[in-house]
Design a protein that fits this description.
The chain has 167 residues and is α/β, with parallel strands linked by helices. It has a seven-stranded mixed beta sheet. Strand 3 and strand 4 form a beta hairpin. It is globular. The structure holds adenosine-5'-diphosphate and magnesium ion. Magnesium ion (MG) binds next to helix 2.
């Protein structure tokens, strides 16, 4: 588990870009955090680093969007309960079998339906900040062999934002 602090949306995008540099075909990332925590912002930085120039918007009403970059990026949002059912019915198994990278906002809501092999990116606000609150704590938890194999790379790539040693 790696705990970092970002101080602006740009820093969250830069952190996401560092993760994207380490991304491989078939990777799954679960983006966790309240509304406005920065899940879509993270995805935007991730996409930019894959060479995607299209604007990345929240897929809240479209369920899933696909972007073509160095890797194919699938961006999903399962915020609404009916979307969970749709994601499970339509396409999730195919997406998981594809060579693309999958980022799922509110991914913790469908954790049971996902392989036990993903990077969890949990974004949280910091209490008591002056408004607007521009700082976020981001906890990166590699779950399963794919991501644990890259743990040292993560530690190196996130050094500038890290709070304390990896644990
Ligand atoms: P979510 O997808 O989690 O609902 P968004 O990424 O859509 O959240 O929105 C996050 C909002 O918070 C954006 O308006 C963004 O500019 C702002 N923001 C401020 N500071 C940060 C930060 N450190 N990291 C990410 N977003 C931030
Ligand atoms: Mg969002």
């Amino acid at each position: 588990m790696i705990r970092v602090r970002t101080r602006s949306p740009e820093e969250t995008k830069n952190l996401a870009a560092a993760m994207a540099e380490l991304a491989q075909p078939g990777d799954l990332l679960l983006l966790v955090g309240d509304l406005g925590a920065g899940k879509t912002t993270f995805t935007q930085g991730f996409a930019a680093a894959l060479g995607i120039s299209e604007p990345v918007t929240s897929p809240t009403f479209t369920l899933a969007r696909e972007y073509h970059g160095r890797l194919l990026l699938h961006h999903l949002d399962v915020f609404r309960l009916d979307q969970i059912a749709e994601v499970l019915d339509l396409g999730l198994p195919e997406l998981l079998d594809s060579d693309g990278v999958i980022l799922i906002e509110w991914g913790d809501a469908i954790r049971q339906a996902l392989p036990n092999d993903y990077l969890e990116v949990a974004l949280t606000f910091i209490e008591g900040q002056p408004s607007p609150p521009d700082e976020r704590i981001v906890v990166l938890t590699p779950v399963g062999p794919r991501w644990q194999a890259r743990a040292d790379d993560f530690a190196a790539a996130t050094g500038q934002w890290r709070e304390g040693p990896p644990c």
